[in-house]
Specification:
The complex is a heterodimer of chains A (207) and B (292).
Chain A (H helix, E strand, L loop, with lengths): L1 E5 L2 H7 L4 E6 L5 E2 L2 H13 L3 E7 L5 H9 L2 H6 L2 E5 L2 H10 L4 E4 L1 E5 L29 H4 L26 H11 L17 H7 L1
Parallel strand pairs in A: 1-3, 2-4, 2-5, 5-6
Antiparallel strand pairs in A: 1-7
Chain B lengths: L2 H6 L4 E6 L8 H11 L4 E4 L11 H10 L4 E6 L5 H13 L4 E5 L20 H12 L17 E6 L6 H14 L3 E6 L3 H11 L6 E6 L4 H10 L7 H9 L1 H5 L2 H14 L5 E5 L7 H7 L3
Parallel strand pairs in B: 1-2, 1-8, 2-3, 3-4, 4-5, 5-6, 6-7, 7-8
Helix pairs in contact in B: 4-5, 5-6, 7-11, 8-9, 11-12
Classes of the chains: A alpha/beta (207), B alpha/beta (292).
C-alpha cells in the first residue's frame, strides 16, 4: 500500500506559476488518494482563475495511455506554465518524462505502507520517502535515480555521465542537471540544504 | 592552527594526503610523514579511502598531531549517520583537530566490503551545513551544545576537469552556500581546463588548492583515464611516461609532469594538494622542481 498526502499548501502554491494544468490520478486501489483535500485546493485555484484544465484519470504511470490522454488536452497544457500532478511519485515522473519542456510539479508526498505496491511499470521508481523532491529536480527522482540517493546534487563519481556504482546506469544527478538546464530552471539548485527525514515512516505507521 | 587563517594571510597553502594502514600500527605512516611532509602546511588523512576498510582518520590525525604535523580530518558520509558524524566532530574538536574536509564518500560497492550498508544519511553539502550548526552551538536536531562550540576550517572538494564541469560548479556553489571555506580539487593534468574552471570558480571567493596525483606509469595513467571520475591524462603525457620505462619507474618522469602542471596552474589558484598515493618520498623533489 501507499499513501499520498498533499504537501503543505504554501509549498504547493510557491511552486506554481500563474497558469496551472492539473492532473489527478485515481489509479491503483492500493494507493490512498487525498481526494477531498485535492478538490478543495483545485477549487481555490480555479476561483483564482489559475487553472487551464483538469485531467482526472487513472494509471498515469502507463506512458502510452497517458500520452494519448495528454494529446487531448494539448491546448490547455500549452496555455499553462506549470503542470501540477496529484499522484504518487511514479505518476509525476511519467508526466515529467512526457512533458520535458514543462515545469511539472508534485502536489503530494508519497509514503510507504506494508503490502502490495500497486501496478507500475519499471521505467520510473518512487522511493516513497514522504518528502517528494521532484519539484526540485525537474521531475527526476534523486532517491531512486541516484545510487546514493543524494538530495543535494551529484557526488562527482560519474564517469562519462554514467554512475560509478552501476556503469549501465546514467548518473541521476547528471540527468537532473540536464533536465533543469533544458527547463531553464538551474536556479533551483540554489535552494536551501536538503535533509532527509527518516522519521516519516514512523509518522505514517502511527496514524 | 586552522588553515583558513593562512589562506586569509595570502599564503600559498600546500597539503598532501596520507592513507591510514589496514592494521593497528601507525608508526611507519607517522615516520614517513615526518620525513617527507614536514615542509608542507598540513596533511590530509583519508577516511577509509575508496571504501577500503582501514584505521580511522581521527586516531591517525591525532598520531600525526602528536608528531608535530598539522592534520586535516577527512570525513565521509558513507559509514555514519548524522548522530555518529556529529559525535566524531565533537571528539575531533576535543582532540585539537580543527581542520576538516567534508566529502560524500565513495559507495560501499567500490571497496573491499561491498556487502556493507551504504549510509549517506547526510552528504557533503548537508555535512558542511551540520558543521556550521555545531559551530553555532546547536546540533542538527536543534538541541543546544554544552559549553564552548567547536570551530573548524571547513574544506570541500571539486572536480575541475570533469566532463560535466558546469554541474560541478553548481555543486561547488551549494557547498559554498552550506559553509565550505576552502576547496581541494581532483587531480588535474590539463592546466588549460583548470584555468578555465578557475575563471568561473573565482566568483565564489573561496581559496582553491590544485589537486595533483604524481603519475607513476603509463599503465596507471590509462587506468585512471578509464576508471577514475574527473581525471583525464592527455595522450602526450602517457607517451612521455611510456618513452623511458626506467625513468618513469624511478618516478622522475611523473614528478616532472606534475611539476609542469603545478607551475602552469599556480598563478590561478591559492594552494596545492598532493595525493602521492604511496609516493610520499617524491614530495620534496616535486616541490623543489615546482619551485615551491
Amino acid at each position: 500500500m501507499l499513501i499520498t498526502e498533499l504537501k503543505a499548501k504554501e509549498t504547493i502554491l510557491s511552486a506554481l506559476g500563474s497558469k496551472v494544468f492539473v492532473i489527478n490520478c485515481h489509479g491503483c486501489k492500493e494507493i490512498r488518494f487525498p481526494e477531498q483535500e485535492a478538490n478543495a485546493l483545485q477549487k481555490e485555484l480555479s476561483a483564482a482563475g489559475k487553472i487551464t484544465g483538469i485531467l482526472t484519470t487513472d494509471y498515469i504511470c502507463n506512458p502510452e495511455n497517458l500520452k494519448l490522454q495528454l494529446d487531448g488536452y494539448a491546448a490547455q497544457i500549452r496555455e499553462s506554465d506549470t503542470v501540477l500532478v496529484f499522484s504518487c511519485g511514479v505518476g509525476v515522473q511519467t508526466v515529467a518524462q512526457l512533458l520535458q519542456d514543462k515545469k511539472v510539479c508534485a502536489a503530494c508526498d508519497t509514503y510507504a505502507l506494508p503490502g502490495y505496491q500497486g501496478v507500475t511499470p519499471l521505467e520510473h521508481d518512487c522511493g516513497q520517502c514522504g518528502q517528494c523532491y521532484l519539484n526540485l529536480t525537474g521531475g527526476i527522482c534523486p532517491i531512486t535515480a541516484c545510487s546514493k540517493s543524494l538530495v543535494n546534487g551529484q557526488c562527482g563519481g560519474a564517469k562519462n555521465g554514467m554512475c560509478e556504482v552501476d556503469p549501465t546506469m546514467q548518473c541521476g544527478w547528471e540527468r537532473i542537471y540536464q533536465r533543469l538546464k533544458q527547463l531553464g530552471r538551474l536556479d533551483v539548485l540554489k535552494c536551501p540544504v536538503q535533509l532527509r527525514d527518516y522519521a516519516t515512516d514512523e509518522r505514517v505507521n502511527k496514524e | 592552527m586552522r588553515i583558513t587563517e593562512l589562506f586569509d594571510n595570502g599564503q600559498f597553502v600546500v597539503t598532501a594526503e596520507v592513507g591510514p594502514p589496514k592494521g593497528i600500527h601507525a608508526e611507519h605512516l607517522v615516520a614517513e610523514a615526518k620525513e617527507y611532509l614536514s615542509g608542507i602546511t598540513a596533511v590530509n588523512v583519508t577516511d577509509n579511502q575508496s571504501s577500503v576498510m582501514r584505521m580511522g582518520s581521527l586516531p591517525t590525525c591525532v598520531a600525526l598531531k602528536n608528531a608535530g604535523l598539522t592534520p586535516i580530518l577527512q570525513l565521509t558520509c558513507r559509514d555514519r549517520n548524522r548522530i555518529a558524524l556529529q559525535s566524531e566532530l565533537l571528539g575531533a574538536a576535543m582532540l585539537g583537530i580543527d581542520n576538516i574536509l567534508c566529502l560524500t564518500g565513495d559507495h560501499t560497492k567500490m571497496g573491499d566490503h561491498p556487502q556493507a550498508k551504504p549510509v549517506f544519511d547526510l552528504d557533503s553539502v548537508s555535512l558542511l551545513h551540520t558543521v556550521c550548526q555545531l559551530e553555532q552551538g546547536v546540533d542538527l536536531g536543534g538541541n543546544p551544545l554544552v559549553g564552548e562550540p567547536p570551530k573548524f576550517a571547513k574544506g570541500a572538494v571539486v572536480s575541475p576537469c570533469s566532463e560535466s564541469v558546469d554541474a560541478q560548479l553548481a555543486k561547488m556553489e551549494r557547498k559554498v552556500m552550506a559553509g565550505a571555506e576552502y576547496f581541494q580539487t581532483q587531480a588535474v593534468y590539463e592546466p588549460e581546463k583548470f584555468i578555465q574552471f578557475m575563471e568561473k570558480a573565482s566568483q565564489f571567493g573561496k581559496p582553491v588548492q590544485l589537486g595533483i596525483v604524481i603519475p607513476k606509469s603509463a599503465g596507471m595513467a590509462k587506468f585512471m583515464n578509464n576508471n577514475v571520475a574527473g581525471i583525464h591524462i592527455p595522450q602526450e603525457m602517457i607517451d612521455e611516461l611510456a618513452a623511458d620505462k626506467e625513468k618513469a619507474k624511478a618516478g622522475i618522469t611523473g614528478v616532472e609532469i606534475a611539476a609542469r602542471v603545478i607551475k602552469a596552474c599556480k598563478p590561478y589558484c591559492q594552494g596545492l594538494h598532493i595525493m602521492a598515493l604511496g609516493w610520499e618520498a617524491k614530495v620534496p623533489e616535486l616541490l623543489k622542481l615546482a619551485e615551491l
